[in-house]
Amino acid sequence: MRFKTLCLAAALAGVASAETTTEDFGKTDDGQPTVLYTLTNDSGASISLTDYGATLQAVRVPGADGELADVVFGFDDVSGYQSEANGYFGCTVGRHANRIAGGEFELDGETHQLAKNDGPNHLHGGAERSFDKVVWEAEPFTSSAGQGVAFRYRSPHGEEGYPGTLTAEVRYTFTEDNRVVIDYRATTDAPTIVNLTNHSYFNLAGAGAATINDHVLTLYADSYTPVDSTLIPTGEIAPVSGTPMDFTEPTAIGARVDELGSGDGAGYDHNFVLRDAPADGELRHAAHLLDPSSGRTLEVFTDQPGIQFYGGNFLTGQTGKGGQKYAYRSGLCLETQLFPDSPNKPGWPSPVLRPGDTYRHRCVYEFGVRE
């Protein structure tokens, strides 16, 4: 049931007639109410966000024919996000995104044991109270850039085995030119590790379309981090040239995916080492994605050193929004972040955060149409 509508006047930061609406998104298993926020710009494009997991629930953008389609995976209410069908759809991942070998790391001479929720390894912040599984405080806002929602969560010392009390904020801004700007910020009262990302699954033909193997991908990365059989990086940084990992030129995702093997989990699920930013303070151009059928494009920009390209190898046909089925390799993730297992890889960009310092991360998903 829709219970509140905020109409933003022209005088408010240049977002004339744009609208933010809020509605009930259901209660969690332990009775907490959740809310869905929908931000619509002047052109009629919109995104939806929920305070459960600080999650990007929908992105409705036009194709070459001008028709809007929702291009990210998700569920119609919070119960879906709490179900076994949820593959981290659209959520904020933390405290540490991706995998940590053996579920442990050493910091200042002390070993910290985390949940082993991905075979022998730790994945995406843990099993019970990772950032995707909690209700965040939420505050809608407007700015000169657009309209948005700021989500905040205070993770106590010891939650999921992580040291220090971490105060985290994720701000989503939706602009008039169909950019989703995600700004992360975190502080701590004791040394800890932090590596946050967004885990949206994209299909630019529309969520529920049959495949992403026909999407054409460019990654602005000349090297990647090879992995072992449990998807933990070996520590090597290897060139992509001459391998199925080479997306330095526009390449159909399905063109070489079978060279990576077959069976459960086989395919793209790798961290790519991005090229340096062009100048101080500027974002790296991380990826370009095109769906030839609709003409929709996605550009990804970030200040982080890596991007995880995941090709939906663990999708099993889950039922999502509007009864759509999310089939094997029908969605892909482009997760800007530090490298996987970074706490255990000396010399790699460090996830360590200390009192008095501030973790920051910006990711921009820019949606457009092929010219």
- Given the structure, what is the number of helices? 1
The order of strands across the largest sheet is 12-13-14-15-30-24-23-18-21
Beta percentage is 35-45%
Overall strand count: 30
Q: Kindly state the mean pLDDT as a whole number? A: 94
Shape: globular
Oligomeric description of these chains:
single chain
Helix content: under 10%
Residue stretches low in confidence (pLDDT < 50, at least 5 long) are: 1-16
Features:
1 helix, mainly beta, single chain, 30 strands, 371 residues
Provide a descriptive summary of the structure in words.
This protein is mainly beta and 371 residues long. 1% of the residues lie in helices and 41% in strands. The protein is built from 1 helix and 30 strands. It has one helix spanning 78-81, and strands at 2-7, 19-27, 33-40, 46-50, 55-62, 68-70, 92-93, 99-100, 104-107, 110-113, 122-123, 137-143, 146-155, 166-174, 179-188, 192-193, 197-198, 216-219, 221-225, 238-239, 251-252, 269-274, 284-290, 296-302, 306-310, 318-319, 325-326, 333-337, 352-353, 359-369. Strands 12-13-14-15-30-24-23-18-21 form a 9-stranded antiparallel beta sheet, with no helix packed on it. A hairpin with a 5-residue loop joins strand 5 (55-62) and strand 6. The longest helix is centred in the N-terminal third of the chain and has 4 residues, at 78-81. The protein is globular and about 60 Å long. It starts with a strand and ends with a strand. The relative contact order is 0.16. Mean pLDDT is 94; it is low at 1-16.
